[in-house]
Amino acid sequence: MKLKTRGVRIVVVIGLIMFFGNVFAQKVSRVEPPNWWAGMNNPNLQIMLYGENLKGASVTIDAEGVDLVRINEAESPNYMFLDLKIGKEAPSQTFDIKIKSKSGKMKVSYELKTRSEKTSETVDASDVVYLLTPDRFANGDPSNDTVKGMKEVADRSFRGGRHGGDLTGVLSKLDYLDDLGITAIWLNPVVENDMPKYSYHGYAITDYYKVDPRYGSNEQYVELANELHARDMKLVIDLVFNHCGLSHWWMVDMPYSDWVHDHDTYGNSNYQLAVESDPYSSTSDLNKMEKGWFVPTMPDLNQDNPMMANYLIQNSIWWIEYAHLDGIRMDTHPYNSKEVMKQWTERVHEEYPGFYLLGETWVGDPALEAYWAPKATNPNGFESGLTSITDFPICYAMHNAFKEDGDVWRLYETLGKDFLYKEPMTNTIFPDNHDMDRFYHTIGNDVNRFNTAMTFTMTTRGIPQLFYGTEILMEKFGDHGDLREDFPGGWEGDSQNAFDFEELTETQRIAFDHLRKLLNYRKESKALQYGTLKHFMPNDNVYVYNRMYEDENVLVILSNNDAEVELDLVRFKEILEGYEGGLNVMTGESVILKDSLLVAPESSLIIELSKK
């Protein structure tokens, strides 16, 4: 009897082993997006599953208010795209996605979270955005400089290598940025870039949903957003839809043969943005521009594949909701599919009306820039849906105006072309960025011209953006690894701690103090943020304009003349009438305005006008 019972037990155990072995024969290793939210305005969600032998599998879900609309099989047997519709009344919940195929059964838990009651403030002209390369700003956690299993290890001696900056370092310097007067920060991409070389810049993404472990974690990124919001500061994410890194996990097993554009067919891009707006462009030029790879290590994503388009659009919405972001900067915007990018802006604004969407549109001609600008009325009917563009024409005008023997006429002339834009006040303006020679070098390392240029940047129209280290006159040029040099003091043992005002050189203090006063005044000035702009043709290399908002009138005088100039104020009667003087914003001294005013060489004046 005992033997028979034992035999039955053995049979039962073997049966259970076979049953569970069958159930768990399949494995889903990736579910993206990893979660979603109830109560989104758009009810549609597409979930990408990646696992072994999913082709032909049946799928069921058991969720309140959620319907499985369609199962989309891919060319690869290891992918499945599920179209779900989430009802308006669907609650937050965790439900099972049950998968059954010839290989076995399994279930994947999926969570619909509750949307946060926090609302994004979004970036606008009241802000000054600080762009930083996180690998080069501050190393707050040396233990994650090199992460086991990742392809590139830290090597601070190599200008193109990883140097160890991280999110902990950024968090540790928020007091510094707040004191400077910064109101928003934009980090070069922080998601995983597991490339064998040059992974520090972040633009060869290998996982769209995971912060690179050498920077920290997704949770730390949320912590950064929360810490910024507690200071009334904002966070802008840098997204890349045009390309991924060659080491992205899906490159070894793509869901579709057209998931990325074929490099053998298109080669590298022609990098000619003008063909996108040119009414006479050839199809071959357009294909080369949009479908060519940015570089051989960055495969060009085929957004004409609807699964790819959905994947990217949902990824951006996921990050906004997950981290409570305040803006997106879209890398290489014109290289993407115009139609898909328009869908992207519509989807984002469906969930977050007015959300700051900055497109990198690197062209030097205002007419070419205006094609991508908000609310543009182009002859072909195209309108990008962006809320801001990168104003490279103003950037180049600043280079020419403030270099040695430069002429401020270039500023006046470039702004005079603002009739091409519907909303020029929304343009993002900057003296340089992470892809350009440092501005201080470009203008010949002259601190007086530098300060005058910073006055222009912070007082003209638009949304100002500064590249990290501009405030301390970082001056490298040429190789990108050089101009994105480490911020002094961000690493233990650095010979200078430039985060400490007392350790700055005399020239650095002049520049830093000027910018700090300027930014903190701008933070409180509605006229500089939102005011109308009226300017006058420059004479003697002196440029005069005012910004006015309701009763606030701010007069700005920029002199790029290397000699003192006596400025005839009668010419400016239309903006000065009714005002007897004002406050010199930078010195706190009173200014009396009569018939003329002496303006020092290579200097700037900001006067908050007072009525008689």
Protein model, in words:
The protein has 3 domains: 21-114, Sandwich (Immunoglobulin-like); 129-237 and 310-524, Glycosidases (TIM Barrel, Alpha-Beta Barrel), CATH 3.20.20.80; 532-611, Golgi alpha-mannosidase II (Immunoglobulin-like), CATH 2.60.40. 28% of the residues lie in helices and 24% in strands. The protein contains 18 helices and 26 strands. Strand 19 and strand 20 (542-549) form a beta hairpin. The protein is elongated. It starts with a helix and ends with a strand. The model is unreliable at 1-24 (pLDDT under 50).
SSE arrangement:
Elements: H1 2-23, E1 28-32, E2 36-38, E3 44-51, E4 58-61, E5 66-73, E6 79-86, E7 93-101, E8 104-114, E9 129-132, H2 167-172, H3 174-180, E10 184-187, E11 191-192, E12 207-211, H4 218-230, E13 234-239, H5 263-266, H6 274-277, H7 283-291, H8 306-323, E14 327-330, H9 338-351, E15 356-359, H10 366-370, E16 388-389, H11 392-402, H12 409-415, E17 428-429, H13 439-442, H14 447-459, E18 463-467, H15 480-483, H16 506-524, H17 526-530, E19 532-539, E20 542-549, E21 552-559, E22 565-568, H18 573-576, E23 579-584, E24 590-592, E25 596-599, E26 603-611
Parallel strand pairs: 2-8, 9-10, 9-18, 10-13, 13-14, 14-15, 15-16, 17-18
Antiparallel strand pairs: 1-3, 3-6, 4-7, 5-6, 7-8, 11-12, 19-20, 20-21, 21-26, 22-25, 23-24, 23-26
Keywords summarizing the entry:
TIM Barrel; eight-stranded parallel sheet; six-stranded antiparallel sheet; alpha/beta; Immunoglobulin-like; 612 residues; 26 strands
